[in-house]
TrEMBL record:
<feature type="domain" description="Thioredoxin">
    <location>
        <begin position="1"/>
        <end position="90"/>
    </location>
</feature>
<dbReference type="InterPro" id="IPR013766">
    <property type="entry name" value="Thioredoxin_domain"/>
</dbReference>
<protein>
    <recommendedName>
        <fullName>Thioredoxin domain-containing protein</fullName>
    </recommendedName>
</protein>
<dbReference type="InterPro" id="IPR036249">
    <property type="entry name" value="Thioredoxin-like_sf"/>
</dbReference>
<dbReference type="InterPro" id="IPR050620">
    <property type="entry name" value="Thioredoxin_H-type-like"/>
</dbReference>
<dbReference type="Pfam" id="PF00085">
    <property type="entry name" value="Thioredoxin"/>
</dbReference>
Length: 109
């Protein structure tokens, strides 16, 4: 089932310095944008998920809606992340699950 709510996925790693820099930015965007689902995927914990999504650099931010990739951003680029979020934010949406076969990921609210 494809959901209508925008989802932003942060593919990250604990050892990645740019990821640690963007962590608070991502958390703040999640806090201030309640109509969007924000997820973090630790590429070391879920290397098969990262591989399936073609993640080659971190951090990688993917924007998804209704089962489609709307865009992505690689790197610690705060301004570009904020612009992409503004571009893809839509109202009146819902969300139930990100992936089949329950994988390990974080929800931000």
């Amino acid at each position: 089932m494809h959901e209508k709510k925008l989802m932003v996925v942060d593919f990250t790693a604990t050892w990645c310095s740019p990821c640690r820099t963007m962590g608070p930015v991502f958390s703040e965007l999640a806090r201030t944008t309640p109509d969007v689902i924000f997820l973090k995927v630790d590429v070391d914990e879920l290397h098969t998920v990262a591989s399936d999504w073609g993640i080659e650099g971190m951090p990688t931010f993917m924007f998804l809606k209704e089962g489609k990739i709307l865009g992505s951003l690689v790197g610690a680029k705060k301004d570009e992340l904020q612009k992409l979020l503004a571009k893809h934010t839509f109202k009146n949406a819902s969300f139930s699950k990100f992936m089949n076969n329950a994988h390990y990921y974080y929800y931000y609210s």
